[in-house]
Specification:
With 378 residues, this protein is mainly beta. It is built from four helices and 22 strands. The strands form five sheets. It has a six-stranded mixed sheet, with no helix packed on it. The N and C termini lie far apart (76 Å).
């Protein structure tokens, strides 16, 4: 919905186009405000197979809506034979499934790019893994009956705001037929969805970046033409210039993260370890398939060694554990880690730049100081 000049002040004056930071430009007050509202996963929490809800990464585009589950309804309409209106109890009465899904923000790594796209300033922590319980979207669409000619499902959330001068509900679409594992989820890690994670219902699209997982879901509409709303056709596209139509952001590129070893300096986050064997461990994931290789470097990428990677087991959409042992010597080191998936996608050693800062899976770099134990007296 475009701005109407009821108050005489165009929204474009307060909601400006996307831009790239000028050379030497620091993080702005507005970006700090975004960073305070949204939060990443503390990397030491990678030790959890399933991320506790309060530690799971969070990005909220507008406000967290207050939704009364007793009066809330999900509408299913458009190109369907039988329009539906379902309450939460009706959805919970349908056969439920649970999927363990690693979810990552499409902008993860944005703040490490140069030049830096101005937006939520993620480093590498915008990720988490949860057990999502709900109803397969296919089940609900089968009840409604998909009409011939329907090509996309459009999902509308209850969060409302303005972005780049466009007033809007948060809306995204998926092509039909949807994957079998796409969920209408009403539970996270065995409990009701927390308000910030989409209570009472959200979409979960395994393997796709977080922008596809529409929260506070209130409507599903089947359309006979591709959806061209802001979050689909303007935002979340790989662009090299303002007039580049770009390609859509979809599946998660491979990434591996190391749990920072030792203990940190408060400000710099430089890690301190003792000389000798240091166990390194972490997680790796990809939206294209299982991770088949994780490589670790202790010399800022000059040399690499293979780590041992665990299988995904029954959780085909969850991250995989990896581990190796590094023999630390006194001095400064930079740990790096990179993943390769079964389809041959590998993390780059140079930044994959685009104007939105999307899909930047540049390898992680962790500064480490190896410090012998201090002397303990005569």
């Amino acid at each position: 919905m475009e701005w109407r000049h009821g108050a005489g002040i165009p929204l474009g004056e307060v909601s400006t186009p996307g831009r790239v930071a000028a050379a030497g430009e620091g993080i702005s007050e507005e970006e700090l405000a975004l960073a305070a509202r949204n939060h990443g996963l503390p990397l030491e929490a990678l030790r959890h197979d399933v991320t506790p809800p309060g530690l799971h990464y969070l990005l909220t585009h507008y406000d967290i809506p207050v939704v009364d589950a007793d009066t809330w309804r999900l509408t299913v309409g458009g190109r369907v034979r039988t329009p539906l209106e379902l309450g939460l109890a009706e959805l919970q009465a349908l056969p439920a499934v649970t999927h363990r899904v690693t979810m990552e923000c499409a902008g993860n790594g944005r703040a490490r790019l140069s030049p830096r796209p101005v937006s939520q300033p993620w480093l590498v922590e915008a990720v988490g893994t949860a057990d999502w319980t709900g109803v397969p979207l296919r089940t609900v669409l089968a009840r409604a009956g998909v009409e011939d000619g329907a090509v996309e499902a459009v999902f509308t959330g209850a969060d409302h705001g303005v972005e780049r001068g466009v007033e809007q509900d948060y809306r995204r679409s998926l092509p039909l037929p949807v994957d079998a594992d796409v969920l209408l989820a009403y539970a996270m890690n065995g409990g009701p969805l927390p308000p910030q994670h989409g209570y009472p219902l959200r979409l979960v699209v395994p393997g796709w970046y977080g922008m596809a997982h529409v929260k506070w879901l209130r409507a599903v509409e089947l359309a006979d033409t591709p959806f061209t709303g802001f979050q689909q056709a303007v935002a979340y596209r790989f662009r090299q210039s303002p007039d580049d139509p770009g390609e859509p952001v979809t599946r998660i590129a491979p990434r591996a993260l190391v749990i920072p070893p030792g203990f940190p300096d408060f400000m710099s986050r430089v890690r301190v370890v003792r000389p000798g064997p240091v166990e390194l461990e972490g997680r790796a994931w990809s939206g294209y398939g299982p991770v088949t290789r994780v490589e670790v470097s202790a010399d800022d990428g000059s040399t690499w060694t293979d780590a041992e990677v665990s299988s995904r087991g029954p959780h085909r959409w969850g991250w995989q554990a990896w581990h190796t042992t590094w023999t630390a010597a006194a001095g400064r080191h930079t740990l790096s880690v990179r993943a390769t998936d079964a389809d041959g996608h590998a993390q780059p050693l140079e930044q994959p730049w685009n104007r939105g800062g999307f899909g930047n899976n540049l390898v992680q770099r962790v500064p480490v100081l190896c410090q012998p134990l201090p002397a303990t007296g005569p």
